[in-house]
């Protein structure tokens, strides 16, 4: 059942931090991507849903533009926007507990991915297939669909979302909290659906998520989520760029693409293997593959098989150990073509770009993700075999321009045949909203004639627009790539 609660109690007050407070910088500076910087009038550190309602109501009443943050890992400047006057930080809200009334495991939005993994495992031996970086905040992560090292075996985190609590603002400017579930009888079900891939900062402030596997029931929380893998084997292997010439580079990439295509099924014995192929620039010296296997005793064999398949005709990796940021994302339904592999070789090796941090990342995708119906969630990309990312990172602001020039040109040339972007169709499946990129909305860089929202949401966009119109009629929650109401 859904509930809706409003608080008129203006005495409910969270911690308010102005620019003179030393804590201000810890929130404003809590950005993984330092390319963007905010200067809000104040920050609210909130500890409860009521505090969020009061903080949102205050900002709306004062006419100040607001943004919410959880883990600070946005790749774009959605929170660090100079026009944002109030930042609401939900990171004090970190509880993970079983909610018997809803028959689901509740996770507050301020918990990080690492904290959530740990709490689920330690309390119930369970898991949700979250992202692979422990400091990401649950608040902004799950609403974007969320893929990670268990995705080929278990799907997206959003596929396990049973309910969400959100603080929204109505047409009169009143803030209130609402719980929306996936129950077909729930009149607020559309808001739940929007939180299965619609992206953060669009509809309201998420305060809590509840998770339960589709079809699971009963009162034992240990049975409501997938069991954690018996064991996890991580690995990393490297090739030295000194040993790689153009033919062996192309062979390596071709082997990798072929492997991903062949082993993409949810029933593949390799669905328990997830890898990230890091093709760094030649000046970095190495090409790295790292990954995670949950195949237990068979893991080492699985990893060896995978590395042998990759290295065939290209040379084995040198080091194997069993044991990062402008990101331009694309989902591939097919391996890279010979032309694209040539472009990759060119951008990774040419000397006219001095870009030490540049790399091409290829993460395995598909598997269980691709078993979910297109309209079952707002995560509309259910047909990809690979997630490609052109990345770069830098410390010195003086090299920013050349890094951005390199990464934009690289991405454009990879997708030059479809207007510089991965237009959804036979070969590509668009891009992930959890890896947002405002360049896709720039008609000088995206010359495909296909709108940015089609790249992220495909045919789901009109439905998201209707939900936006219903739940955020005043467009309080907005950023450079936010959903526009109809
Ligand atoms: C190093 C790194 C690794 C990553 N790895 C993965 C990965 O493996 N898989 C994956 O799917 N993604 C990954 N991401 C992307 C990440 O999931 C998204 O950037 C996510 O939105 C970050 O959430 P956050 O709360 O940490 O960030 P924030 O910067 O706090 O927020 C990001 C966006 O979500 C909104 N938001 C934050 N909290 C809330 C809330 N409580 N309610 C509503 N909106 C909110 C913000 O307003 C903003 O628009 C990675 C990002 C980085 C930087």
Summarize the structure.
The protein contains twelve helices and 17 strands. The protein has 486 residues and is of the alpha+beta class.
Topology:
Elements: E1 4-6, E2 15-17, H1 22-28, E3 42-45, H2 49-61, E4 66-69, E5 86-89, E6 96-99, E7 104-108, H3 113-124, H4 138-141, H5 151-154, E8 161-169, E9 175-181, H6 189-194, E10 205-211, E11 233-240, H7 246-262, E12 273-280, E13 286-293, H8 299-311, E14 319-322, E15 326-332, H9 338-349, E16 359-364, E17 386-392, H10 400-414, H11 452-457, H12 461-471
Parallel strand pairs: 3-5, 4-5
Antiparallel strand pairs: 1-9, 2-3, 6-7, 7-10, 8-9, 8-10, 11-13, 11-14, 12-13, 12-16, 15-17, 16-17
Helix pairs in contact: 7-8, 7-9, 9-10
The structure holds flavin-adenine dinucleotide (FAD).
Flavin-adenine dinucleotide is lined by residues 32, 67-75, 78-79, 90, 109, 131-133, 136-137, 139-141, 143-144, 146-148, 200-201, 205-206, 434-435, 479.
Model description:
The chain is an alpha+beta fold and 486 residues long. The protein folds into 2 domains: 1-228, Uridine Diphospho-n-acetylenolpyruvylglucosamine Reductase, domain 3 (2-Layer Sandwich), CATH 3.30.465.10; 233-460, Vanillyl-alcohol Oxidase, Chain A, domain 3. Helix content is 25%, strand content 20%. It has helices spanning 22-28, 49-61, 113-124, 138-141, 151-154, 189-194, 246-262, 299-311, 338-349, 400-414, 452-457, 461-471, and strands at residues 4-6, 15-17, 42-45, 66-69, 86-89, 96-99, 104-108, 161-169, 175-181, 205-211, 233-240, 273-280, 286-293, 319-322, 326-332, 359-364, 386-392. β12 (273-280) and β13 (286-293) form a beta hairpin. 52% of the residues are buried. Bound molecules: flavin-adenine dinucleotide (FAD). The site of flavin-adenine dinucleotide (FAD) has 34 residues, from β4, α4 and β10. Flavin-adenine dinucleotide binds at residues 32, 67-75, 78-79, 90, 109, 131-133, 136-137, 139-141, 143-144, 146-148, 200-201, 205-206, 434-435, 479.
């Amino acid at each position: 059942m859904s509930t809706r609660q409003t608080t008129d109690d203006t005495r409910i007050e969270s911690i308010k931090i102005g620019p003179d407070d030393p804590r201000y910088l810890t929130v404003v500076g809590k950005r993984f991507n330092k390319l963007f910087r905010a200067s809000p009038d104040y920050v609210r550190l909130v500890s409860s849903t009521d505090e969020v309602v009061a903080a949102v109501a205050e900002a709306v009443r004062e006419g100040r533009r607001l943004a919410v943050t959880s883990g600070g890992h946005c790749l774009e400047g959605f929170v660090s926007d100079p026009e944002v006057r109030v930042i609401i930080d939900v990171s004090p809200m970190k509880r993970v507990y079983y909610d018997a009334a809803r028959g689901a495991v509740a996770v507050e939005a301020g918990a990080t991915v690492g904290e959530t993994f740990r709490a689920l495992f330690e309390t119930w031996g369970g898991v949700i297939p979250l992202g692979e970086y422990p400091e990401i905040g649950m608040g902004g992560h799950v609403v974007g669909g969320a893929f990670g090292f268990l995705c080929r075996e278990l799907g997206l985190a959003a596929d396990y979302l049973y309910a969400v609590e959100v603080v929204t603002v109505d047409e009169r400017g009143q803030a209130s909290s609402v719980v929306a579930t996936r129950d077909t009888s729930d009149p607020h079900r559309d808001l739940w659906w929007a939180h299965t891939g619609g992206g953060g900062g669009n509809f309201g402030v998420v305060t809590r998520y509840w998770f339960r596997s589709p079809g699971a029931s009963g009162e034992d929380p240990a049975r409501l989520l997938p069991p954690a893998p018996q064991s996890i084997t991580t690995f990393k292997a490297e090739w030295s760029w000194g040993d790689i010439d153009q033919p062996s580079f192309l062979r390596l990439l071709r082997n990798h693409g072929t492997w991903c295509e062949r082993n993409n099924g949810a029933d593949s014995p390799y669905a328990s293997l997830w890898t990230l192929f890091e093709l760094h620039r030649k000046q970095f010296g190495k090409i790295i593959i790292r990954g995670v296997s949950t195949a237990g005793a068979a893991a080492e064999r699985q990893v060896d098989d995978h590395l042998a398949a990759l290295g065939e005709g290209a040379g084995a990796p040198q080091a194997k150990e069993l044991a990062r940021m402008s990101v331009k994302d694309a989902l591939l339904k097919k391996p890279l073509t010979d032309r694209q592999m040539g472009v990759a070789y060119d951008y990774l090796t040419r000397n006219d770009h001095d870009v030490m941090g540049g790399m091409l990342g290829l993460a395995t995708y598909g598997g269980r993700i691709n078993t979910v119906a297109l309209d079952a969630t707002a995560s509309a990309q259910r047909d990809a075999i690979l997630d490609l990312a052109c990345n770069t990172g830098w410390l010195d602001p003086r090299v920013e321009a050349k890094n951005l020039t390199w990464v934009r040109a690289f991405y454009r040339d990879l997708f030059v045949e479809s207007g510089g972007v991965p237009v959804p169709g036979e070969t590509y499946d668009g891009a992930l909203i959890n890896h947002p990129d405002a360049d896709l909305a720039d008609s000088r860089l995206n010359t495909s004639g296909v709108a940015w929202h089609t790249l992220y949401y495909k045919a789901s966009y009109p439905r998201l627009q209707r939900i936006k119109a219903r739940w955020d009629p005043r467009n309080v929650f907005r950023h450079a790539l936010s959903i526009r109401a109809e």
